Amino acid sequence: MRDCALSGPLYHQENTLAGILFIISAPSGSGKSTLVNQLRSLVTNLEFSVSYTTRAPRGSEQQDREYHYTSPARFQEMIDRGEFLEWASVFGNYYGTACRSLTDAQAAGKDLLLDIDVQGAAQVQEKIKDAVSIFVLPPTPEELQMRLRNRSVAEGSLDEEEIARRLAKARGEIEAYRRYRYILVNDKLDYAVESLKAIVIAERARRDGAPQDPETARMMQLADKCRQANATDRLEPVLASFGLVDMHAARA
Ligand code: ADP
Ligand code: 5GP
């Protein structure tokens, strides 16, 4: 299998991008798409990668807007041609990020946000060391179940089996939170959106190294609270509600 050639003029040095690559992951139904959609209207110069998937469009989703919907055979051809930065099988379907998303964003001088699962995130983190990773958590399993059900009803396709599969998978996915730089608990939507925006602004400001105006300083403080090491108070009740003991915190 060939792979994206991660070198050349778009890169400062091997495995380091000129722009910022943000990765956001969450158990399905946590509200990640809702957060990302709101972020779109709040920050400029951030491209949102449209993934390829073999799953069918849901509800009001449109070809080339939410995803590039494709057949398993075409997806396999793209794998064989080394056209993916990462790809994974999620809930029985294939999902992948085209290398093209990255090179296009770099050529346009924009930062890029990838909304991908924990398997894909691990692949990207391996290849691009300075990617900024964000993990979104639902407050409790009960709330997650309710969100999955509400979304399903809103899309006119209540599929209890699919909801059960996604819920069952959530616990395992949540354990991957340790590999992410930032943690967002999506209980109050407005606060979670503000925190996500703060992370983008803070990471940009950190790299620019420019003097901070008061608003940027406020954003940097908010982002700092979401750093994994500083988010223990928010994280622990969520882990407990999913029956997960935070071994890192227990050892500390
Ligand atoms: P994901 O992209 O993580 O699978 P969605 O963004 O589709 O999740 O959200 C799942 C459902 O939860 C949607 O119906 C959405 O409106 C709802 N939702 C998202 N965030 C919140 C929140 N903070 N409080 C209550 N409901 C939310
Ligand atoms: P959904 O079917 O609900 O849109 O997405 C299911 C899961 O697939 C989500 O966790 C989403 O982040 C993930 N996903 C979407 N696009 C990609 C991708 O390109 N690569 C990987 N690895 N996961 C993706």
Summarize the structure.
It is built from ten helices and eleven strands. The chain is an alpha/beta fold.
Structure description:
This protein has 252 residues and is α/β, with parallel strands linked by helices. 45% of the residues lie in helices and 19% in strands. It has 10 helices and 11 strands. It has helices at residues 32-40, 72-80, 99-107, 118-127, 141-154, 160-174, 189-208, 214-226, 232-241, 247-251, and strands at 11-13, 16-17, 21-25, 46-48, 51-53, 67-69, 84-90, 93-98, 111-115, 132-137, 182-185. Strands 4-9-3-10-11 form a 5-stranded parallel beta sheet, with helices on both faces. The chain has a 4-stranded mixed beta sheet with strand order 6-5-8-7. Strands 1-2 form a two-stranded antiparallel ribbon. The N and C termini lie far apart (42 Å). The model is unreliable at 7-12 (pLDDT under 50). The structure holds adenosine-5'-diphosphate (ADP) and guanosine-5'-monophosphate. Adenosine-5'-diphosphate is lined by residues 26, 28-34, 147, 150-151, 154, 186, 189.
Beginning-to-end CA distance, first to last residue: 42 Å
Number of strands: 11
- Total helices: the number is 10
Radius of gyration: 18 Å
CATH architecture: 3-Layer(aba) Sandwich
Q: Give the C-level CATH assignment.
A: Alpha Beta
Kindly estimate the percentage of residues that lie in beta strands according to DSSP. Answer: 15-25%
Task: Name the poorly predicted regions.
Answer: 7-12
Largest sheet: 5 strands, parallel
Kindly state the mean pLDDT as a whole number?
90
Q: Within the CATH hierarchy, at the fold level, what is the topology?
A: Rossmann fold
Ligands in the structure? adenosine-5'-diphosphate, guanosine-5'-monophosphate
In which range does the helix fraction lie?
40-55%
Structural class: alpha/beta
User: What is the number of domains?
Assistant: 1
The secondary-structure element order is: EEEHEEEHEEHEHEHHEHHHH
Lateral arrangement of strands in the main beta sheet? 4-9-3-10-11
The CATH homologous superfamily is termed: P-loop containing nucleotide triphosphate hydrolases
